[in-house]
Amino acid sequence: MNLKDDLLSLVPRSGFTRREFVMTLLATGFAAAVRPVCADTVIVTDTKGLTAGEVKIPAKDREIPGYRAMPAKGTAFPVVVVIQEIFGVHEHIRDVCRRLAKLGYLAVAPELYVRQGDVSNMTEIKQILDTVVAKVPDAQVMSDIDATVAWAKKSGKGDTARLGITGFCWGGRIVWLYCAHNPNVKAGVAWYGRLTGQTGDLQPSYPLNVAATIKPPVLGLYGGADQGIPVETVEKMRAALKAAGNQSEIVVYPDAPHAFNADYRPSYRKEPAEDGWKRMQAWFKTHGVV
């Protein structure tokens, strides 16, 4: 079975017309900017024993799409909000949701760019950053995650008293910010999220600016060979958290580049990715997201 067939097998077929099925497959693929996918390392998690698929989340001004995966049987699952990379809620993020669902979580990834544009067919990272990502206000993101948590609670399937959040790259930064925004989060895990940068009206703060106000414990997972996030910056964040008496911890994998968990890209590094995944599970368990 090739990668395309693997991905086809992940899409729920019940109740779909052929045309709807094809449209859903296009929506669930990998972003154009990251193709061709590294098929030798990509992780594909099936939906056996899961309820998985697209959902609509009522936000302040509109419904936003999201992807949800959870065990097919049971209720009151601990909730993990999964925050996208710059490529949106594409196949990798959906697979992360399924991996978490296999562990017993209700995992949900809201599409946080929906008002600014669809990045899935953009072929250049610069285009994604300039035309969409730069126009996404942090306040909007915080509000949409709040709405996602409310949706999970109202669904009757999620126990938001056991709330965790994780995110990758762009989403890693958001994890830190959301943990400063919502003290009710039990724990966060931020994968290689930028810690400082140029602020403005839409992005007024970075994690280093709000380190003193973060209440939930966050596990930061970073690469020592990340060209965009210097280790010096990571050390500044670590020191700021310590000064604030925060329980957060940061792990740096010395030889890992940025996006070392992105198994569909050349940046993937198996050992730190697997170690980070184990640490994330332990972190959630230790801090009540279980």
Please tag this protein with its features.
290 residues, alpha/beta, Rossmann fold, eight-stranded mixed sheet, 8 strands, 20% strand, globular, disordered N terminus
Termini Cα gap: 35 Å
Described by strand count, sense and barrel closure, the largest sheet is: 8 strands, mixed
Broad CATH class? Alpha Beta
The run of helices and strands is HHEEEHEHHEHEHEHEH
Query: Roughly how many Å is the radius of gyration?
Result: 18 Å
Q: What is the overall pLDDT average?
A: 91
User: Which CATH architecture?
Assistant: 3-Layer(aba) Sandwich
The H-level CATH homologous superfamily, spelled out, is Alpha/Beta hydrolase fold, catalytic domain
Number of strands: 8
Spatial sequence of strands, sheet with the most strands: 1-2-4-3-5-6-7-8
**Amount of beta strand:** 15-25%
Number of domain modules: 1
What's the CATH topology name?
A: Rossmann fold
Report the structural category. alpha/beta
Estimate the global geometry from the Cα principal axes: globular
Number of DSSP helical runs:
9
The level of helicity is 25-40%
Structure characterization notes:
- The protein has 290 residues and is of the alpha/beta class.
- It has a single domain, classed as Alpha/Beta hydrolase fold, catalytic domain (Rossmann fold, 3-Layer(aba) Sandwich).
- Helix content is 34%, strand content 20%.
- It has nine helices and eight strands.
- Strands 1-2-4-3-5-6-7-8 form an eight-stranded mixed β-sheet, sandwiched between helices.
